[in-house]
Amino acid sequence: MSQQTKKKYEYVYNCVAPSDSSELEYIIDNMREVTVNTVLRKLSVKDLNLTALQLINDALMYNLRFKSVKQLKKDWAMRYYVLKCSKRNLDVVVVKNSGIEYVFKSV
Prior knowledge:
By secondary structure, the protein is of the alpha+beta class. The protein has a five-stranded antiparallel sheet, with helices on both faces. β4 and β5 form a beta hairpin. The longest helix has 10 residues.
């Protein structure tokens, strides 16, 4: 997919304060685990100078910040998921840290 047609994802909520709890339940029940590289590729938007690391750092709670992608990749508490469901018009990336799901939706 070319950079011009690449989807942009934005952080929308986490499981502590979801804007739609039934949607979050559906996402958790149906998401599939992927590699950190898949998530980094999906979340980075070069034309807006946004990196996946910036988006993830901005979403994380408790002042958790990763200084580098290398540090992010080594964190044992991080898990990564995706879900695409046209029936529900969902295209999401989920970053899970210590049991908290952070949901990013395509816009």
